[in-house]
Structures are given as C-alpha cells and as structure tokens.
Amino acid sequence: KKRIVSGVQPTGSIHLGNYLGAIKNWISLQNSYEALFFIVDLHAITLPYDAQLLSKATKNTAAIYLACGIDTSKASIFVQSHVRAHVELMWLLSSATPIGWLNRMIQFKEKSRKAGDENVGVALLTYPVLMASDILLYQSDFVPVGEDQKQHMELTRELAERINNLYGGRKWKKMGGFDCLCYSGDRRGGAIFKVPEPLIPQAGARVMSLTDGLSKMSKSAPSDQSRINLLDPKDVIANKIKRCKTDSFSGLEFDNPDRPECNNLLSIFQLITGRTKEEVARECQDMNWGTFKTLLADALIDHLHPIQVRYEEIISDPAYLDGVLLEGATKATCIADATLNSVYQAMGFVQR
Ligand code: TYM
C-alpha cells in the first residue's frame, strides 16, 4: 500500500479551513492508503505560545481527528514530539538546507512580519525543515494538505532530492575489518528518501475568511467571526453565517472575481453537503442572500453536530485517547527509526 502522512498544529481552534482543506480528505484517503496522522506540537512552539495550554490543545486536536472519522483500525494517530526521530532527522536535513530556501518561504515572511523581530525565533525559519523531516521519515508517497502548504511541500521535495543526490549512492562496506563509506556505484534516484507528492484537493484547498473573501480562513486571525470552528455551538455558527460578509449583486454564482465571498460561501456549501458544483450553481443561481445563509447555516450545523457529539465522548475518556496516541507513536517510531538509521549510515556516521 502507498503511504500518506499529514498533520495539524495544535494552536487555536481547528476550523473549517483545516477540515475542508485537509482532515475531511484524510477520512476518505485512509481507506486506500496506509495513513499516519500526527499533531505537530513541535511546530506549535515556533511562535510565542502558552506552555500551560499546549498539552491540552494537543489532546483536543487528537480527539478532533477521531471525532471527524479517523479510524484507528486503518490509520495511526500520534503526537509529533513522541517520536524523537523527527527532531533528529531535522538536524541532519538542516545541514543540507540552504538558508536562502528558507528565507524565501511565504509563511515565514508573513509570520515574522506579524510577530515582529523580537518574537521571531530561529525555529520559525527552520520550521519547513522540521516539516520535511515529518514527511521524509515515513517514506511517504502523498501528503494531503491545503494550498497554503504547497511551498513547504516543494521545499520538502527539493530537500529529498538534494539528500538523495548528495548521499544516495553511498553504502557502508566492510573494508579490511573497518566500516567505511564508499560509493557503491549504484546511484538509484530515491535511494534514501522517497520524493513525496502533495495531494491538494480541487475544492476546499483554500477556504476563505467569513469577513474578507480575499484572505484565507486562519487560526490566527484576530476576529473569531472570520472562521467557523469545528466545535462552535449551533447558535454561534448561525450567528457567524448571518453576519458574514456578502455583496449586493443579485443571484449567486461561483468564480466571479468581483464576488470572492460568494464563491467562498457557495464552495463551503458544496463541500459540506457533498453536492457537485453544477448542482449548487443551479440550485442557488436565483437565490437571495437571506435564503442562502439560512440553508448554509443549517447545513453546517447538521454536518458538524455528529462530530461535536463524538468529540465530547472521546474527550471524556482520557485513557482511550492516551491508548490511541501510545499505539500510534509505537508504530510511527518503528518506521521512523529505520529511516533515521539509514540516513545516519548514508551520511557517514559511525554505526551504533
Ligand atoms: P496548519 O496547522 O496551519 O493547517 C493544517 C492543515 O489545514 C490546511 N489549511 C487550510 N486548508 C484550506 N483552507 C484554509 N483556510 C486552510 N488553513 C489551513 C493546511 O494546508 C494544512 O493542511 N505546516 C503545517 C503542519 C505540518 C504538516 C507536516 C502537514 C507540519 N508537518 C507534515 C503535513 C505534513 C501547518 O502549519 O498546518
């Protein structure tokens, strides 16, 4: 079976963008792929954070994975920091990562501009190397993510190729009783790492803010009105949709560049109801905003309600959740350690 990996940061609340761009797709993919889903707690400390809240947020995120339908008989769920190899491989990878590649990352530029120089730690810059490590450790074939991770995925691929080229053809050989590193002459392309591909959905890859159709829905936007959180109560969802930004055109349509909010809300409706774009376009073409907003709010409430019920069950059973995370970390450690050992070997370290 081909393998997929992906993860979400335990910062802020998980919102509709995370769900439609990533988690919802994981649920269908777990049926066809060997799947590993982690909660990237090590990434969550790259900006100032509250240490008192980290472990709770990490467990809550794991509970959301389960509540959304990740099935532990098909997929593993684990906490990134529980598998030490992530940080270890990151160091090895960072030795071959040009700083220029990292300086070019859009998310780094945006986040560091917002945070201000005093708050920007080195880890914010090296964040994509840790993400590459998360992916390459598992020799992943595909990585289901939203569009905002595209650039990080490109860096991951380039890094995999670079390491493969630098160290790929070398093998340990016994020579006169000593272990030494020499070219085996066999320079297979993917010798050390498989070069993974992103899986970015056609619809849902970029869910936009409810208050501005030109910026993406995000955990860090100051106004909670701008996003639907998966755990928002019914009345909050209804209120956010009622107050969300619209326009004064008549009828509703997809893909009109002058109507980003309209396109976004129709896309959310399409994904949450499981209909095709054509069906939604036809159904809503003559609708006014009032009618559509009621439909959309009801659809969201109906879709999220069962997830919220399951979430409450899971979060009230900490022993179950701990068991899931332990099992996940045990399986992940096995795969990760094997890769890590082969990288140490290929890079010329003395074998333990
Ligand atoms: P994070 O926590 O910011 O987001 C988690 C996932 O949600 C997607 N996403 C969106 N999709 C559509 N519309 C939006 N408005 C939206 N906002 C977020 C993201 O694309 C992502 O798939 N660096 C990653 C976490 C990570 C990771 C990894 C992912 C670390 N290591 C290895 C995959 C593989 C991040 O910060 O995601």
Description:
The chain is mostly helical. The chain has helices spanning 16-29, 51-68, 85-94, 99-103, 106-115, 122-136, 150-167, 234-243, 260-273, 277-284, 289-315, 318-346; strands at 3-8, 34-39, 75-79, 142-144, 170-175, 178-183, 197-199. The chain has 2 domains: 3-207 and 318-346, Rossmann fold (3-Layer(aba) Sandwich); 232-312, Tyrosyl-Transfer RNA Synthetase (Orthogonal Bundle). Strand 1, helix 1 (16-29) and strand 2 form a beta-alpha-beta unit. Helix 6 packs across helix 7, helix 8 (234-243) packs antiparallel against helix 11 and helix 9 (260-273) packs across helix 11 (289-315). The radius of gyration is 22 Å and the shape is globular. It binds tryptophanyl-5'AMP (TYM). The site of tryptophanyl-5'AMP has 26 residues, from strand 1, helix 1 and helix 6. Tryptophanyl-5'AMP binds at residues 5-9, 17-18, 21-22, 40, 43, 131, 134-135, 143, 145-146, 148-149, 152, 205-207, 216-218. One of its GO terms (cellular component) is chloroplast. It catalyses: tRNA(Trp) + L-tryptophan + ATP = L-tryptophyl-tRNA(Trp) + AMP + diphosphate + H(+). It is found in: Mitochondrion.
Sum up the structure in keywords.
352 residues; mainly alpha; Rossmann fold; 2 domains; 3-stranded parallel beta sheet; two-stranded parallel sheet; 7 strands; binds tryptophanyl-5'AMP; ATP binding; EC 6.1.1.2; aminoacyl-trna synthetase; ATP-binding; ligase
